[in-house]
Amino acid sequence: MSEMIARRSVVRGVGKSMPARILTNAEMETMLETSDEWIVQRTGIRQRHIAGAGETTSTLGLAAARAALANAKMQPADIDLVIVATATPDNTFPATAVEIQHGLGISHGFAFDMQAVCSGFVYAVATADMYLKAGQARRALVIGAETFSRILDWEDRTTCVLFGDGAGAVVLEAVVTPADAGDDAPGIIVSSLRSDGAHKDKLFVDGGPSTTQTVGHLRMQGREVFKHAVAMITDVIDDVLAKAGVTVDDIDWFVPHQANVRIVEGAAKKLGIPLEKVVVTVDRHGNTSAASVPLALEHAVTAGMIKKGDLVLLEAMGGGFTWGATLIRW
Ligand code: ACO
Fold first, then answer.
1. Tens digits of per-residue pLDDT, 59-77?
2. For residue 183, what pLDDT is reported?
3. Which of the residues 90, 228, 237, 320 has an alpha carbon 20 to 30 A from that of 194?
4. Cβ distance 114 to 145 under 8 Å?
């Protein structure tokens, strides 16, 4: 007899952690030939946070994880899966996720890093969802944490003004739901992930353990990235909407990767999502890569924008290229 129940991954809590140090556009004007006007007009970014001495991807990620656990009213012992989406791990290995697991004081379950650059959090949520649905874990911490300031070329004004540091996290819990509950039951409904290495030279880091034995610096053909971004984002969103059998009008909140306001607004316009439903936080933290979607999500939840029962669409695109979207009933 077939099982009449299924598991859904329900969001139980959100959290974030930002370095105290804020670097404003005005301060960037003193470091480089740039202007607040240029940066705001092209990107919407007004400031970014920069990790200080003693702050690393794991310390930020751990603080975000603790905040998400507190928000979920859970203890570290409740967690049996930790996934950290990052392109800026503390070390080449061990995984930053294992460091955070240890920082939480737990040694049961398992932890690993996910590397999909700016799409990392969406990839990690989709991956955690698979483990929870399959009964391989019960409660997952999914963390997006980055210290991009450490891989920027601070003399390259075309890239260094765009990125920042920070961490965001969510707690997901597997909840038994009738198999025919439909899309009104809370939890992750569906995800869609894509990648295409043909674009690897458009956004990459020019170093690594197996090539240069250095960490390297971020390199980007900004215009080329921009050219592909809107089409790829809208394509993968169309895919999740079709898989879920919903239309764009059913979306209550659009929580996109916070890279650039123009990309976000271009995608929203092409999809037909009104800007009142779009969560934008890039102005206050710049592009924090894998941390950007959970930071925007944390903001929308704690500000009381996202409410129980809302249909929430996450989206990201990044180096590789990688891109993806996830649809969640809150
Ligand atoms: N300050 C002042 N002037 C600048 C700066 C700066 N920080 N950076 C570049 N310029 C100059 C350039 O030198 C150029 O001058 P020129 O015309 O004399 O040669 C001029 O501004 C225009 O440069 P472009 O690169 O053509 O500017 P564009 O309008 O394409 O904007 C930007 C650049 C903002 C990077 C844009 O291409 C973009 O947003 N691309 C997407 C990149 C992105 O968001 N990546 C994030 C990672 S991928 C993702 O997350 C989706």
1. 999 999 999 999 999 999 9
2. 81
3. 90
4. no
pLDDT digits (tens, 9 = 90+) for 189-224: 999 999 999 999 999 999 999 999 999 999 999 999
> What single-letter amino acid sits at 195?
S
Q: Is 71 labeled as catalytic in the residue annotation?
A: no
5-180: CATH architecture:
3-Layer(aba) Sandwich (3.40)
Q: Does residue 12 have a pLDDT over 90?
A: yes
Report the separation in Å between the CA atom of 4 and the middle of ligand 1, taken as the mean of its atom positions: 53
Q: CATH fold of 185-329, please?
A: Peroxisomal Thiolase; Chain A, domain 1 (3.40.47)
Give the residues across from 14 on adjacent strands.
170
Q: Are 288 and 72 in contact (CB under 8 A)?
A: no
Catalytic one among 25, 71, 260, 287? 287
Query: What does pTM read for this prediction?
Result: 0.97
Catalytic option among 257, 260, 285, 299: 257
Instruction: Work out which ligand 1 atom sits closest to the CA atom of 42.
Output: 34
Paired sense of beta strands 139-147 and 81-85, if any: parallel
What type of residue is 77? Answer: A
pLDDT tens for 86-129 read 999 999 999 999 999 999 999 999 999 999 999 999 999 999 99
What residues does ligand 1 touch, defined as CB less than 6 Å away?
Answer: 34, 38, 42-43, 118, 157-158, 161, 203, 220, 222-223, 225-226, 229, 257, 259-260, 263, 287, 317-318
Listed by start position, the domains of the chain span 5-180, 185-329
Residue 125's alpha-carbon distances to 133, 257, 267, 270, in angstroms, are 12, 14, 21, 25
